[in-house]
Amino acid sequence: MVIRTHLVDGWFSQLEFNMGVASIKQLPPDQGREVAFAGRSNVGKSSVINKITRRRALARTSKSPGRTRELNFFSYSQDRHLVDLPGYGYAKVTESQKQNWAKLLDHYLMHRQALACLFLVMDIRHPMGKFDTQMLDFARECDLPVHILLNKADKLSKSAATAALHKIQQQMAQDQVSCQLFSALKNTGVEEARQRLADYLYAEATDKKVPR
Ligand SMILES: Nc1nc2c(ncn2[C@@H]2O[C@H](COP(=O)(O)OP(=O)(O)OP(=O)(O)O)[C@@H](O)[C@H]2O)c(=O)[nH]1
Ligand SMILES: [Mg+2]
Fold first, then answer.
1. For the CA atoms of the chain, what is the radius of gyration?
2. What is the domain class of 5-206 according to CATH?
3. How many whole angstroms from 206 Cα to the centroid of ligand 2?
4. Which atom of ligand 1 is nearest to the CA of 153?
């Protein structure tokens, strides 16, 4: 399904940072629809969000891992959110902080009705790490669609990047999981991801249903 470009442009241009959530009780009301960006620390989740929404500095990025420390909600309205999740695998935090994040993330992923799709960002050079696989297993159990972005595709030759994509696609030959190449640096795959994100967030607005 294709939502018209001018609608998508309008929606994404109006997204605003809404809140950073550090504990379960701070979560905004579970209504409407949202897409969350998950992935290992430093894979480029925040950079991907900025590229897809064509907003230079909507989400804060950093060269050093561990930049995003809360669930950051970017909202178009009370009913439409993008969520930038803290990266998993970030070592330089205390054990109690790690447990706190894990608890919050587990709760969010398990109970959030508004969550329409998980955009799982991986570094194309090191895809399918332990946490990625856990996330995919979990999503399958909950019937939650996942769109995998193999980011930093600029770090590989075109043929190596395509080979990596095909390998993952073969492994992921199941419903509810799709996969694409992406480079936040070189703008690879932006349109495809943008359209997919718009479908999950806003399909209702055009009276079409997205799978869940
Ligand atoms: N070469 C290359 N570098 C990228 C790409 N996307 C992001 N980066 C770089 O990777 C680093 C991390 O980017 P972030 O977007 O902050 O990553 P993150 O996953 O949000 O990190 P945390 O919030 O710490 O988990 C930055 O130095 C980015 O410039 C890409 O497609 N190609
Ligand atoms: Mg980040």
1. 16
2. alpha beta
3. 31
4. 31
